[in-house]
Specification:
Helices cover 33% and strands 26% of the residues. By secondary structure, it is α+β, with helices and mostly antiparallel strands.
Length: 150
Amino acid sequence: MQEFGGAKLILFIGDRIVVLRRDDKPDIPWPCRLDLPGGGREGCETAIECVLRETFEEIGLSLTAGDLVWEDQFRRGVFFAAHLPTEAQAQIVFGSEGQGWCLVDPAEYVRDPEAIPHFAEMVQRYLALLWQIFADLIFTGFTRDVLGDS
């Protein structure tokens, strides 16, 4: 993996993702836009350490490396995905950065003009992977049912 400056998490709670509204400050990138949990690297931490720390700081959830199911890089940012049950929503405690949080249908986030564009692109990339996995499972089941086990 290339050098990175920060990490973000596409965090599913049930079938929706956690989205944060960035602060409305002119000195930060993408002020007031729709963000994902995560942030800048501190010291020599790894991308996994970074995203786990930032997720805890921003929404109070303690995830582990084992919760992360996908990883990809976009420029200097590393993106991860994780899936938690709907009940995890009750454990979210909003931190001190940003204006608030909500759960959003991931396809709506991708289309939202207030979403940070390259974050929306990474959510779309992950959704495409999920659809491919789903299609492969359906096709595999279909061929096994129709053609029999080989």
